[in-house]
Amino acid sequence: MNMILTSPEFKDGATLDSSYQADRDNVSPALAWDNVPAGTKSFAVAMHDPDAPTGGAGWWHWLAFGIPAEARSLPRNAGEASGSLMPAGVVQLFNDRGTRGYMGCLPPVGDPAHRYIFTVYALSAELPEIPADARTSMAGFIINAHCLGKASLTAYYARHTE
Hints:
Elements: E1 4-6, E2 31-34, E3 42-49, E4 59-68, E5 73-74, E6 91-92, E7 114-123, H1 136-145, E8 147-157
Antiparallel strand pairs: 1-2, 2-5, 3-4, 3-7, 4-6, 7-8
């Protein structure tokens, strides 16, 4: 059975409201997952915008790892920079803006809605060997090397005004 990722705040394919916007409330949504693969030692969570105008790399808004194997959810705003709402020991890497934790949606004004893909990864290691200053692409490579299963939710967001 495949892993399942849900949020009590939006459904897969929904349009996000402005509370998730980086220059407004900038809060990460509550997330919950189920059908975890046997042998899972920890989880990682990420948010990626593949539609960002970066020449193909997209934009990494959030990447956290070291979430304990017994965890099945994260509360709203768990991705805030201090990590105070995360379980002990979780590491939040720098996002592509250069800040730790969650960076909300911030597509260019006038762009069509961007896709924001939230993914939870079930990992075969408690804390993969990822340096705290690693770039998201390096961390993603290591996370995928330890991945036992994953699940994603996609939401959309467009900014119409500054």
